Amino acid sequence: MKQLIENLIKKSIETINPDNTVNVDNIRIDRTKDRAHGDFATNIAMLLAKPLKQAPRQIAQSIIDNLPKDEHISKVEIAGPGFINFFINKSSIADALEQMNSDPRLGIAKVAEPKTIVVDYSAPNVAKEMAVHHIRSTVIGDAVVRVLEFLGNKVIRANHIGDWGTQFGMLIAYLEKKENESGQGMDLSDFEAFYREAKECYDTDEEFAVKARHYVVLLQGGDEYCRSMWKKLVNMTMVQNQKLYDRLDVTLSDKDIMGESLYNDMLPVVVQDLIDKKIAVEDQGAIVVYLPQFKNKEGNPLGNIIRKKDGGYLYTTTDIACAKYRAEKLKADRILYFTDSRQSQHLETVWAICRKAGYVGENVSLEHCPFGMMLGKDGKPFKTRSGGTVKLRDVLDEAEARVTTLLEQRNSTLNDEDKQKVIHNIAIGAVKYADLSKNRTTDYIFDWDQMLSFEGNTAPYLQYAYSRIRAIFRKANNLSAGKIVITNEAEEDLANKLLAFSEAVNSVGAKTLPNLLCNYIFELSNIFMHFYEACPILKEGVEEDIAKSRLALCELTAKVLKQGLELLGINVMEQM
Ligand code: ARG
Question: Which CATH number is 392-567's, of 3.40.50.1370, 3.90.1150.10, 1.10.730.10, 1.20.210.10?
Answer without folding.
Answer: 1.10.730.10
